[in-house]
């Protein structure tokens, strides 16, 4: 150490033109088409992501041999670089933010660590100067060999990880953890795909990481056939401590109302739920309470639609609630019946559907009634579902008001349910309510049809 710094770190600066180039290049990485920046993200979210970025950078610096005190001092001097990391995070995961989904701690680490490793590979021993002086770059001290981690570079890391899960031992067998995963239903190609996406997965030990998590899920009632799907969706789960993270997180969620008897289904539906911070979960739960939901109903939503936690409160949930409120919809009832609706884009999904029904002659009040009665109405494709079913509805000789009474019509298969049932009714020469035509079981449908035909004969 020299003056509290690691001895091999050198502080030098570039002339202005090179300095300007460095600044442009690095900030160019932080935006997509020059249109995506920190300004579009709520300040509360940015503050949380800054803390996550600081934690990732601290751990990375400590991994390079710096002490806690030195790493902390560097972090305190590096506000611009932290902002840069958050901006880069938004660039890498732009699609998530556009649909209002926030990132988990593990996703943030997965996005930033490879980038930090690439900087270390590029700048070596002067990385700290790059961090502290951003966007004014230092120059490398060419006579001295740079310090490069053995697994630097994202592509190199992926290749090594895939090679690791593919290689066989002296007996010609794959690694024990790979064989174990194959016994659970994963084939080698699937394991390679997961490893390319998440290289750390290749280095998880069988007895220390993978097996304990798998056995824990099996004890919860998760079918063995579902394990492969869960790990494919969220391989990071195998890197989380059972005693320090997974179990406490589950207890926390149970206290919020998640049905402990339904954990197998919850984990299968959205395994990422177990990787979100308590602060993020609490923000969503507080919003649900704010919308008028009871604690019991909040628990039902978290159990049935755990992925609602991934939606940004300020960028997704609140604007969607405001939009439906403007239509006259009961927000609490809609959240309870179909929380998935709140994950849709207002501009791309919700408004076009509303305008579709308004164009067909329905009033705003009737549209509100339809969505209140059938929350899933807005989750269907306008082109592939609503339009063709509307066109067929026009041939069924029902008044338009029938859809206000029974908007569930749009939830039935046109080919397998609507057309065959209507053909039978047509041939019988009688008329049933749209609800009776589609919602009744086969036997009840036959009974209703027979009863209607008998009444008509009596007349």
UniProtKB/TrEMBL annotation:
> Which UniProt key words apply to this protein?
Transcription, Transcription regulation, Transcription termination, Transit peptide
Chain segments carrying region Disordered = 139-162
Q: Name one Pfam family in it.
A: mTERF
> SMART domains from the entry?
Mterf (SM00733)
One GO MF term attached to the UniProt entry: nucleic acid binding
Q: Where is the composition biased (Polar residues)?
A: 143-153
GO BP, one annotated term: DNA-templated transcription termination
Q: Which family, according to UniProt?
A: Belongs to the mTERF family.
* Official protein name in the record: Mitochodrial transcription termination factor-related protein
Native source organism of the sequence: Corchorus capsularis
């Amino acid at each position: 150490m020299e003056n509290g710094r690691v001895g091999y770190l050198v502080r030098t600066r570039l002339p202005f033109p090179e300095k300007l180039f460095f600044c442009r290049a690095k900030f160019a990485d932080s935006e997509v088409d020059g249109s995506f920046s920190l300004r579009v993200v709520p300040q509360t979210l940015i503050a949380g992501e800054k803390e996550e970025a600081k934690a990732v950078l601290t751990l990375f610096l400590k991994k390079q041999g710096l002490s806690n005190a030195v790493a902390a001092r560097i972090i305190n001097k590096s506000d611009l670089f932290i902002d840069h990391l958050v901006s880069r995070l938004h660039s890498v995961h732009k699609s998530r933010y556009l649909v209002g989904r926030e990132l988990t701690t593990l996703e943030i680490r997965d996005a930033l660590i490879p980038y930090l490793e690439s900087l270390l590979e590029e700048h070596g021993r002067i990385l700290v100067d790059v961090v502290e002086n951003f966007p004014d770059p230092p120059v490398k001290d060419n006579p001295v060999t740079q310090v490069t981690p053995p697994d630097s570079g994202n592509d190199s890391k992926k290749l090594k990880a895939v090679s690791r899960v593919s290689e066989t031992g002296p007996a010609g067998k794959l690694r024990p953890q790979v064989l174990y995963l194959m016994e659970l239903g994963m084939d080698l190609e699937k394991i390679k795909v997961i490893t390319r996406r998440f290289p750390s997965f290749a280095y998880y030990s069988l007895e220390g990481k993978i097996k304990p998590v798998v056995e824990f899920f099996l004890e919860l009632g998760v079918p063995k056939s579902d394990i492969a799907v869960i790990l494919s969706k969220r391989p990071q789960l195998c890197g989380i401590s059972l005693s320090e993270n997974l179990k406490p997180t589950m207890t926390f969620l149970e206290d919020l109302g998640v049905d402990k008897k339904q954990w197998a289904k919850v984990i299968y539906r959205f395994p990422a739920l177990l990787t979100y911070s308590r602060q993020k979960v609490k923000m969503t739960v507080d919003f649900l309470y704010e919308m008028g939901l009871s604690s019991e109903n909040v628990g039902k939503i978290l159990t049935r639609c755990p992925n609602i936690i991934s939606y940004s409160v300020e960028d997704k949930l609140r604007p969607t609630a405001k939009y439906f409120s403007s239509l006259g919809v009961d927000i609490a009832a809609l959240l309870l019946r179909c929380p998935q609706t709140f994950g849709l884009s207002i501009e791309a999904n919700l408004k076009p559907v509303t305008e579709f029904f308004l164009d067909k002659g329905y009033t705003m009040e009737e549209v509100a009634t339809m969505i209140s009665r059938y929350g899933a109405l807005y989750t269907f494709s306008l082109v592939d579902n609503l339009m063709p079913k509307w066109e067929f509805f026009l041939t069924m000789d029902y008044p338009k008001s029938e859809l206000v009474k029974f908007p569930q019509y749009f939830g039935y298969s046109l080919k397998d349910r609507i057309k065959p049932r209507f053909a039978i009714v047509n041939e019988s020469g009688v008329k049933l309510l749209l609800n009776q035509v589609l919602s009744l079981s086969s036997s009840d449908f036959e009974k209703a049809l027979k009863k209607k035909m008998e009444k008509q004969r009596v007349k």
